[in-house]
Amino acid sequence: MRKIITYGTFDMLHYGHINLLRRAKSLGDYLIVALSTDEFNRTKGKECYFSYEQRRLLLEAIRYVDLVIPETSWDQKISDVQEFRVDTFCMGDDWKGKFDFLEPYCEVVYFGRTPEISTTRIKDELGQTLAK
Ligand code: C2G
After folding, report:
1. Measured from the CB, is residue 9 less than 6 Å from ligand 1?
2. pLDDT in tens, 20-59
3. Which of 31, 54, 93, 131 is packed most tightly, with the most Cβ within 10 A?
4. Ligand 1 center to 85 CA (angstroms)
């Protein structure tokens, strides 16, 4: 069984996230998503609209996702890969090169980001609409 892992905040879930998760699952048989906790997001300078529990509920409803674990630190990736016996780590290419340190432990794949959609853009455009 080929195991895949990816990491992220996945706030205000949108089709860019789904594209990533679908392609991640296509690399193997079992997809683990390490979901950034609210506390970890604050260290990333992100304030989520949905809480960790709400974001976890949404991710667990996605057919491509087999397991959601918390991401609490930048430093857990090597131990995650070893603990879960992961074959492939993948991320969108906005992170290209940033996680190549994992190459001795697993395959590292960067997918092209889905253009034009982002949680930030959704928030900005909704804010403008509501402000009218
Ligand atoms: N993504 C994408 N296309 C978009 C938006 C996001 O492919 N239009 C991908 C990102 O590249 C990432 C994943 O979806 O692989 C989750 O994106 P975010 O929730 O923004 O994750 P991020 O805040 O970048 O957290 O340790 C890594 C971090 O937790 C990544």
Report:
1. yes
2. 999 999 999 999 999 999 999 999 898 999 999 999 999 9
3. 31
4. 22
Contacts of 61 by beta carbon, 8 Å cutoff, 6+ apart: none
- Per the CB < 8 A criterion, the answer to whether 129 and 109 are in contact is no
Is 25 annotated as catalytic? no
pLDDT band (50, 70, 90) for residue 129: confident
Q: What is the secondary structure of 81-111 as a DSSP string?
A: HHHTT-SEEEEEGGGTTTTGGGTTTSEEEEE
Atom of ligand 1 nearest to the CA of 46: 23
Helices (H), the chain: 15-25, 38-43, 52-60, 77-83, 119-131
